[in-house]
Design a protein that fits this description.
about 450 residues, mainly alpha, two-stranded antiparallel ribbon, 19 helices
Length: about 450
């Protein structure tokens, strides 16, 4: 970005920060914010369970990739597109999903997504060609849009005092990405070559069948356990009013943050099993466990990120997130692995796993911090703004794996995924800092919205 465009962008930020001062939500009444409405915690519990399962379905191709590659004879680029198309469809409808959840209620939107996901997942087990697998992987991806629907749903049920924590708990459903990594290798090894009732095959094809059954069961639980009378904050709002905040440049800046903490998280969840197998020659089961050591903190620390954002502000959490990710990834840029003769080079495996674990911790904090910004600045448009941020962040998860594959093919560097994200994180941190400093100088009184009540 050149100097003129940067100054123009920052000037726009300053103007908009003034507007945010005029429309910022007032501090919540301390006496009224201690208790949530009846049913709020049932919504949080069932939406989190549903999202965890749908996230597992959405990213199941990360672990199934190697068996699929072997059966269909695919190269690395072809393999990367299977996960990529699932991520694409799980990202491109997040804006509409958030708007629909605001207008018609998150309950119905989540239910429809699970039904579609169950049918598509069942069909994946019957794929007979690479083209068919691509189409079905795309169809399965629809469940990834459940995130923006769930964010809008939980935001409607919780008061500002606990909203950051509630959204963090819901977002911890990202841990679903590790489910396939943990149960997949054992199921694949134990059932390979077997055939079950109705012609269901074992091996990797059994995984999507299991998920289809679990989705069907969860649909029933969610529908009959959560309140029948749902909250619909956007029921009477016009579509134009719901989309108006998307012209605010802050929305797009928050989206870039989310590309780093969520888009890259999705990309790493998909590529790390292959990375560990190819460069450190570990087994599929070991690669799944090592990847889970990244996924768990990146998901389970999300409630902590919500608490930190509630306590000290989302901006503080974002600074810490980007500084940690940038510093750790800089070390991981050193090419590491084991050569064909079994000689290690670069960083040892245990250190790589530890550093990737730290990146996951920072991403867990950062994901919650990004979504704490949204109800703070756009309390009446959580569905549309959260949907756009989620959509663009998810699209980062779509573009990054193929980009990693193509750049690695050109450079031959095994650490390409770490190098690319290091550059993106560094540029984003610099931009965020420059904009914040300019806002503080130009409109210091407008900065009060970042100070927790």
């Amino acid at each position: 970005m050149d100097a003129a465009s940067t100054e123009s962008t920052e000037s726009t930020e300053c103007t908009e920060s003034t507007e945010s001062k005029e429309t910022a939500p007032s501090a919540p009444d301390p006496a009224a914010a201690h208790h949530e409405a009846p049913g709020a915690y049932r919504v949080l519990s069932l939406s989190t369970i549903s999202f965890t399962l749908m996230f597992a379905v959405w990213l199941m191709f990360g672990l199934l990739g190697k068996p699929i590659q072997k059966e269909f004879g695919l190269d690395e680029v072809q393999l990367s597109w299977i996960s990529a198309v699932a991520v694409l469809n799980g990202s491109m409808w997040r804006l509409p999903a958030g708007i629909l959840a605001d207008r018609f209620g998150g309950k119905i939107v989540m239910t429809v997504m699970m039904v579609l996901g169950a049918v598509s997942s069942l069909l994946v087990s019957m794929a007979s060609s690479y083209a068919m697998l691509l189409v079905l992987a795309f169809c399965v991806g629809v469940v990834g849009n459940s995130f923006s629907a769930g964010v809008a749903w939980n935001s409607a049920w919780f008061t500002p005092r606990h909203k950051g924590f509630a959204l963090g708990v819901f977002g911890a459903g990202n841990v679903g990405a590790s489910v396939t990594k943990l149960i997949g290798p054992g199921i694949i090894a134990a059932t390979a070559g077997s055939t079950y009732v109705l012609g269901i095959q074992g091996g990797w094809r059994l995984i999507p069948v299991v998920y289809a059954v679990l989705l069907a069961i969860t649909v029933v639980l969610l529908w009959f356990t959560t309140p029948m009378e749902d909250r619909k904050p956007g029921k009477s709002a016009s579509l134009s009013s719901m989309l108006k905040p998307l012209r605010d440049i802050r929305v797009w800046r928050f989206s870039l943050y989310y590309v780093i903490v969520f888009g890259a998280y999705v990309a790493y969840s998909a590529i790390l099993p292959t990375y560990y197998q190819d460069h450190f020659h570990v087994s599929l089961g070991t690669a799944g466990l090592l990847t889970a050591s990244f996924i768990f903190p990146a998901s389970l620390l999300r409630p902590l990120g919500g608490w930190v954002s509630d306590r000290w502000g989302a901006r503080v959490a974002m600074y810490g997130t980007f500084l940690i990710i940038g510093a750790v990834l800089t070390v991981l840029c050193l090419p590491s692995g084991v050569d064909d003769a079994g000689r290690p080079y670069g960083l040892p495996l245990w250190l790589v796993v530890l550093l990737v674990f730290l990146v996951g911790c920072a991403m867990g904090i950062g994901k919650a911090a990004v979504y704490k910004h949204i109800p703070t600045y756009f309390p009446d448009n959580v569905g549309s703004v959260g949907g756009l941020v989620g959509m663009l962040g998810g699209l980062g998860g779509f573009f990054l794996p193929p980009a990693f594959a193509y750049i690695q093919r050109l450079t031959g560097l095994a650490s390409t995924p770490f190098i690319v994200l290091t550059l993106i994180t560094g540029a984003t941190l610099i931009w965020m800092h420059l904009v914040i400093q300019r806002m503080r100088r130009a409109q210091p009184e407008a900065d009060h919205i970042e100070v927790p009540a």
